Amino acid sequence: MTTAPSPSPLLSARPAGVGQRSARRTLSRLLAMRELQLVLVTVVIFAITTAHASTFISAGNISFLLADAMAVAVIAVGQTIVVLTRGIDLSVAPILGTAALAVGFLAQNHNLTPLEGLPLALAIGAAMGLGNGFMVALAGIPPIIATLGSLAIYSGVQAIVAHSQEVVTLPPAYFNLGNGDAINGIPYLALIGAGVAIAFALILWRTRFGRSIYAVGNNAEAARRAGINVSRVTVSSYVLCGALAGLGGLIFLAHVGSADSTTGTDSNIQLTAIAATLIGGTTLTGGKGGVIGSFLAAIFLEVALAALVEFRLNPIWEPAGVGVMILLAVLADPTTGRPSLRSALRMLLQSQRART
Amino acid sequence: MAVSAPQQNVVGDAVASLAYEALEISKSFGGAKALDGVSVDFRPGEIHTLVGENGAGKSTLLRVMSGIYERDGGELRLGGESLERLTPREAQHRGIYLVPQEPTLMPHLSALENLFVGIIPRGRLPFTVDWKRMRESAGDYFAQLGLAIDPRQRAETLSIAQQQQLECARALVHNCSVIFFDEPTSPLTAHEAEMLFALMRRLRERNFTLGFISHRLDEVLELSDRITVLRDARVVATMDAADASRELLVNEMVGHQVTIQRRHARAAQSDDVALSVQQLQREGEFHNISFEVHRGEVLGLAGLVGSGRTEIAETIFGLRHAEAGRITLEGHQLVRHSPRSCIDRGLIYLSEDRGRNGIFADVQLPENVSSAIVPRLPRLRGLLNRRVEQRLAGEAMERTQVRALRRDVPIRSLSGGNQQKALFARWLLAEPKVAIFDEPTRGVDVGAKADIYALIDGLARDGVAIIVISSELEELTWICDRVIAVYEGHVTGELSGEQITVAALGRLIVEEGGA
Ligand SMILES: Nc1ncnc2c1ncn2[C@@H]1O[C@H](COP(=O)(O)OP(=O)(O)OP(=O)(O)O)[C@@H](O)[C@H]1O
Ligand SMILES: [Mg+2]
After folding, report:
1. Which residues pair with B380 in a beta bridge?
2. ipTM score here?
3. Among A340, B76, B99, B481, which has the highest number of CB atoms less than 10 A from its own CB?
4. Which homologous superfamily is B20-254 in?
5. What is the distance between the alpha carbons of residues B141 and B119, in angstroms, rounded to a whole number?
6. What's this model's pTM, rounded to 2 decimal places?
7. Are B426 and A288 in contact (CB < 8 Å)?
8. Domain boundaries B273-514, CATH class
């Protein structure tokens, strides 16, 4: 951030101004930024786990964790766009699965390269996202119901595409893409994921479309009155979310090397992506947050869960762990300032008051 | 929530009300002081009014006193007892109620349900609701406030004025004895305001402790027993209303005199018709509406709450679709138009309900102001040029005198009047040819009001055609060249130039075919 007097939705909290403000206040403002909190917490987890098992910090492990987090990270970026408009997309798992299967079969049987698979994955995702967008924006079905429906429908589509077969052998280009390092410790996938996150951060921050997303999420009626085509923006958000889920499918395929009729849904990847979105500071009530936080939160979740494994915690606790982290993240909402139980309670009381 | 029986009738016995004092209250937001050692005492049987410029701290004080904000320092004393940590719930238990500046109704519930939320009366059988009793006492309160709505109507369909009236009714239903009204009259016409005042006076007789905020100094002087002036987070004066005058109050508030002069009605307007509306009709809203506005003219639309003024404006702006009639903008007939196409052709509409239809609460101030012109902003390599955007938004906010300690804050942290000025800035920035301003000065202080009138005058001088909808008849007399009156969806008369007086307008808006 530079000295521009006004901040951006690129980051969920305001960067400190320059000059007169005391260093302490600058620091406390920085610490209130969700992005920084996530980086710090991730580093702390890394340090603690490394003290326990020194291989945790090896370049190989870092590279693996980053690559492993990217499918969720990219999907979380898309999810964030939808949540910013006050929507939600529960159907990203079968979109990922369908895209992974379609590209995987063509690669397995016809030597489709990853680069050739990319437009296909995006197109499949976008098409499925378009379906969601129509249901929400034009048919007026509440997002959670619409995408719960399409979660079921798209899972069926995925099963039909799978046709009781699996993708098991892929050309080596996929393995290289999905597990190779660009430089030591930084996998190709991380570069792709970071590229996507930064690109969408810029889109949200500095384009007409991005502005419309925040406007619609904050107050759809005011957005309409400010000349924004609310349905178009809403449909677009689902299309983008779908396309990114399709990209997530390609990433997943390259990283894991296989796909079948339950890829994505079997690991409830849509919930992990929503978790990353919320932990990243985007609020379910729309209009507040950003994609960088979601991207970092996906990495944070990956690292935190891997740390649990290092400490030999029974994997049964994994979902509970994610749940606890969501709750902690919501309690530490940047708008309430410091993360404190008291502020959370006060918030609750105030909302109670607002309702009565 | 305590389940208490709603009062059957407000004209009941006197209540044992307590004095409520704020002592040396301070409150900061992110280092900026909103209240700096403020002491105000509210006494039973008295209406105590807070006045001050936008952002002076009036709403903040009442929010602190009703437990919505936690104070940083100072003491709250209710009937001599010090209130330690006051939560909204605790406040209500103790009989303290705040009618908020921006209505906070639940949009999907009916007016009736909104009225009784939290204190729904039980029916005779367990788990049942005494709807009959609710309907009866609601009807009672509605009648006393002159609120002409069906209690079954969903809150989202109410106009801002009706929402405000419903909020006032809610205060009575809640059986509280200390009631604060934060700008309840800003969207009301004198007629509805008068009914609210009558009610407040009755409450005063019954020994209620009443707090009031308003920027309409005439009504302040008429209604109040005592007046406290806040300025820059401090109390600058507390006086008996009997000793106060408009000049004195303005002087204390702003530090200098503000004189609002009647705009020079210019007889020779251009003959260019900028906007013409012919035989516009929407069933149940308005009928056979025809008028023209010329370039450089300020046309007023006068009418009671619910008379159809806003509906007409929203139809012109493409927010509703006319069943019949024709709208022509600069010689071009508008068909299937949308707000976007209107804005692009130079027709803009400032909505009356800023909370529901105006602000993007969590979006930063400059982006809120620029939101209607994003497509016109210059781009660098496909990305919006933020420096230009900041500059344009900044200039527009200077013109409307938005007062904020920092620009880079979400608009929700601004005081009500400053939010209104920011929205006015949004539409100035759109460089309109025809501008419809619906309650342009709602919640704006005297000084800033004069500034907005000057801006409107300036726009008219630059050839912009302007339609002003206002519930404040005086406002119309100051700024309009011509006024048409609307009563129950019909045009009942037209006045121009020197004919435009409060008395004449008042007659036109309350009776059909009054002219
Ligand atoms: N939630 C908040 N966060 C940050 N600043 C706030 C918040 N609420 C109020 N303020 C600031 O406190 C100051 C006082 O605001 P307040 O709403 O009390 O003004 P007011 O006197 O009611 O003005 P108006 O006449 O416009 O309603 C303003 O500078 C405002 O920006
Ligand atoms: Mg206020």
Report:
1. B383
2. 0.85
3. B99
4. P-loop containing nucleotide triphosphate hydrolases (3.40.50.300)
5. 16
6. 0.87
7. no
8. alpha beta
